Amino acid sequence: MNAPMSTPITSPDVYARTGVPETGLRNYWYPVLAGWRLGKKPRAVKILNEDIVLFRDAGKIHALQDRCPHRGAQLSQGSCMYPGSGTLTCPYHGWTFSGESGNCVAKLMEGPEAVIAPGTGVKTYPVKEHLGVIWLFVGDMEAVPLSDDQPECLAKDAEWHGFSTWRTYHCNWRVLKDNLCHDLHAPFLHRNAPELILQPVFPHAVQLAAEPTADGRGIGYKARGGINKADYPGLGQFPPARESWYRRLKPTGRGKDIDPTKSPAVVKYGYLHRQSSLLPGITLIGRPSGNYFMCRWVVPIDEKTTLFYTFSRYRRQGAVSTMLQKLQWIFWLSWTHDWLFSDQDKRVLEKVKTQRETLSRTDAGVSAWRRFVADHARRPPSARETGQDAAHRAAAE
What we know:
The protein is of the alpha+beta class. Helix content is 19%, strand content 29%. The strands form six sheets. Strands 11-19-18-17-16-13-12 form a seven-stranded antiparallel β-sheet. It has a three-stranded antiparallel β-sheet with strand order 2-10-9, with no helix packed on it.
């Protein structure tokens, strides 16, 4: 799939014609909070523009709409007044709600004989804790199993170990996800990142192709060819000579694609793509060994804010390997990549203006991702039956 050459798009929002919704894809699981951050007090979170309160009682996590139907107070300001009952009490007048059903079970300021009309309650959300992270399903259908929405390196915890970090980006989720669609910005923007500064610049001017992944959950990217440096008439060399003298290390191979005939990732584990974009907003980046993956999960908060979760996952290969991998992450990857490397993206993306764009050859992966979302995002059976799929596809054309 190739992006159109120099195709200008003018609109109040360049995404309006893509079918990619502004506040994110519903009917998927998302990571929203590190488990250790939810203590005895309720915690307010926002995802897909919905305000939700999380609370833990008797070891179980519950998720409710963060608005009391009585007078609109925030339930996240309330408390678990009756430990062990699985209920949350509003701070304003004491209306108390079941974490399981969302039903109002008591109106404390009206007495135990108070009449509670049928249907009085708040919305509940499916919630799970996995890998030390709290996950929410926000949608219009019954929740699918959490593992359905996770790559293998997250779903099969017994076979993998790792770490997670998060950052808040002040930009729309679509801008952040497009940035991760193998759009070839890395050889330029990140060429002087701490983890890359001593290595040759990644190949650029490559031929990029995008194709559906084997499981049908997204698209995988393949890059062919490319150059490490070149002369530009009237300008000079890129990278400039002043940026080249310190590049003394041999390349680590991160800029190379997976060799389908030799790479253990393909031969042993069946991973066909070094980098892929998966629904609902995942970028999965692996190594040719197949023993390490970085899973970057874009979580829409609202129109202007995005939570960016990064999972570094190592295949379990014994106690010594596990210890060395932990040390590598703690003393190297956690700050060189999850912090400093990502900060280079953050500074740019938070200033991006989406009123106009001119797509070019480097945007083949971006265009493919947008089309895939419009055509394949999960929708309730009722939506499929009423022809909303066709409407989404038409909007993307």
